[in-house]
Amino acid sequence: MTQTTPLHTIHRQLGASFTDFGGWDMPLKYGSELAEHRAVREAAGIFDLSHMGEVQVTGPQAGAFLDAAMLATYSTMKVGRAKYGVIVDDDAHIVDDLITYRLDEDDYLVVPNASNAPAVAAVLTERARAFGAGVEVIDKSADIALIAVQGPAAEAILLATQDDGAAGGETAAQQGLRELKYYAWMTLTIAGLDVLVARTGYTGEDGFELYVPAEHAVLLWNALSNEGEALGLQPCGLAARDSLRLEAGMPLYGHELTLETTPYDAGLGRMADAALKNKGDFAARAALEALAGAQPARVLVGLSSDQRRAAREGSTVLAGGQEVGTITSGQPSPTLGRPVALAYVDRAQAEPGTALDVDVRGKGLPFTVVELPFYRRER
């Protein structure tokens, strides 16, 4: 059965085109996906991400448990911070990439991708049973809505939701928001709601992800939309989200990350090496130790081209007419005005500047290996 988010009616009212995404009926676009993409790069976009999962991990051993259950180290995180990481199976294949927030000394929020949320919750629950007392895993995905505001005007939009301070001065909340660091969170009151606001995102721009009880999602969306209208805020669908994340060189589960890839394949070898060096026993340690000394046959790279036609997922990458890789994501870059792609290619062909061809509908088109990300915002 297809699932819908608490904002589904809002999207219909806005005239969205929908697509199935991991079993969810999600807005693909509201009008022009190009206009939505440019809104995020030039002003701001608002996204419904309520299909994402939320798994709460609590208890006096919560931090130690997450250290044992996932690849990164969480017990040393400060309250108010967030961390990007991955969870792997016992053979070191990637189950999901996710963000984890430390809400309190004994309270964490793990945010997996939508289609993987049940699998992540199941793996964490199983590992919690094996870990023992002092930790509880609770799947709260159905109870929490997630809305993102991304773009150079995102901070101004959230600031506008706050009451002005005395004599027009800045409030403590506004000051806290301005000073909020990347991968950190704070609680902000918006439209009378207590909202967890994190300076995180998946677009390559400054922006925020806002967590609220699902029953308040419409109120929060409307409050943000009303304040953002004068600052160029536009509703954005999954099409713009995909083109934005690709320009930023960010992997997408099911494309660059799968149950066939390990952290070493996906350019996350430093995270794996740090776990092996700094942690005791943890899930998949033996499998990662076996992989650590060997270089993967293929690695993830960025490709770009001066010609107009884009490489698409599944296209073959060629060197001298021989197959050396596969495109995992590819499309024209609206910001850069040229095709870009992510691909797994043979290690010998992965050096930036390497000239390759991509088979696009039977024709070999020229691409070059480039440094990631393709797009980097001005700070």
Keywords:
379 residues; alpha+beta; Gyrase A, domain 2; Alpha-Beta Plaits; Elongation Factor Tu (Ef-tu), domain 3; six-stranded antiparallel β-barrel; 19 strands; 25% helix
Characterization of this structure:
By secondary structure, the chain is α+β, with helices and mostly antiparallel strands. It folds into three domains: 8-49 and 144-247, Probable tRNA modification gtpase trme, domain 1 (Gyrase A, domain 2), CATH 3.30.1360; 55-139 and 262-295, Aminomethyltransferase beta-barrel domains (Alpha-Beta Plaits, 2-Layer Sandwich), CATH 3.30.70; 297-379, Elongation Factor Tu (Ef-tu), domain 3, CATH 2.40.30. The chain has helices at residues 8-13, 33-42, 62-69, 117-131, 154-160, 172-179, 217-228, 238-247, 269-278, 285-292, and strands at residues 17-21, 24-29, 44-48, 55-58, 82-88, 94-104, 107-111, 136-139, 144-150, 185-190, 193-198, 207-213, 233-235, 298-304, 316-319, 322-333, 338-346, 355-360, 363-370. It has a six-stranded mixed sheet with strand order 10-11-12-9-3-13, sandwiched between helices. The protein has a six-stranded antiparallel beta barrel with strand order 14-17-16-15-18-19. It is globular. The N and C termini lie far apart (43 Å). The mean pLDDT is 96.
The CATH superfamily of the largest domain is known as: Probable tRNA modification gtpase trme, domain 1
First and last CA, distance: 43 Å
Widest sheet: strand ordering: 10-11-12-9-3-13
Which structural class do you get from the secondary structure elements? alpha+beta
The CATH topology of the largest domain: Gyrase A, domain 2
Radius of gyration (CA) equals 21 Å
**Could you report the average pLDDT, rounded to the nearest whole number?**
96
